[in-house]
Amino acid sequence: MKPNDINKIFQKAKLKKNDIVMIHGDAAVAAQFENIKSKTKLPKLLNTIIKYFSEGTVMVPTFTYSFTKGKTYNYLKSQSEVGMFSEAFRKHRGVKRTKQPIFSFAIIGKEKGKFLNTNINDCFGENTIFDIFKKAKGKIICMGCSFDRITFVHHVEQMHGVKYRYLKNFSGKIMIKNKLKKINTTCYVRKLRENNTTCLDLLKRTALRKKNLFLTNIGKLPFFSISSEKFYDISYSMLKKNKFSLIKKT
């Protein structure tokens, strides 16, 4: 696979240069590049993505679940806890990061200012980055990872008010401009006694049937693309019919 193959897939998915995209990625995508030195493969992938959306905005999750266990969040230094792709993007030149202590995003592009100052006292509800992303008609991309990785689903669940999750408050400290600041943030967490986990198989099949989901392979790995509007509308409608349609029992 070559870097230009990434551009071809974006084009086939009808992704535009000025799109606002939320990318869930896996470094294994870059590992498939041929005739490129190993240490430059992941930077090459990131540069290819950023260049393609040169007129838009790219957002990548850089979540830090350690905040819920008492660790201070430093938006400039805290490492992403969701993989190599995420951490490499966080450290990429020109990228800025949100101050939400659990579900932060690294962002680059023309509209980054719209997302850097969203509500950080909640994770998935109104005026959070997920809400603003939906209102901005952003597009969700999975590169080399499962469709179940899409965290946006928790925004849908909170807005619908599913009963297998509840709002839990987390208190802690964040570092801003070399000063510690106390913060409280709520997160719509799973009820552990419910013994379930996210499962978006039905959503995926429904979106494919409606031709709202683009699905292909990126090398030997999966690639998905769907608009946040379609994801929200389909999953919200599913919850109205079946309150357990986005989960499965474990």
Overview of the structural elements:
The chain has 250 residues and is α/β, with parallel strands linked by helices. It has one domain. Helices cover 32% and strands 27% of the residues. It has helices at 3-12, 28-31, 38-52, 84-90, 112-116, 129-135, 153-160, 201-209, 228-241, and strands at residues 20-25, 57-61, 73-74, 96-97, 105-109, 139-143, 165-176, 179-190, 196-198, 213-218, 221-227, 247-249. The strands form three sheets. The protein has a seven-stranded mixed sheet with strand order 4-5-2-1-6-11-10. A hairpin with a 2-residue loop joins β10 and β11. α1 packs parallel to α3 (38-52) and α7 packs across α9. The mean pLDDT is 97.
Biggest β-sheet, characterized? 7 strands, mixed
Low-confidence stretches: none
Strand content: 25-35%
Count the strands? Answer: 12
Spatial strand arrangement across the major sheet: 4-5-2-1-6-11-10
Structural class: alpha/beta
Helix content: 25-40%
- What's the order of the H and E elements? HEHHEEHEEHHEHEEEHEEHE
Cα-atom Rg, whole angstroms? 18 Å
Q: How many helices?
A: 9
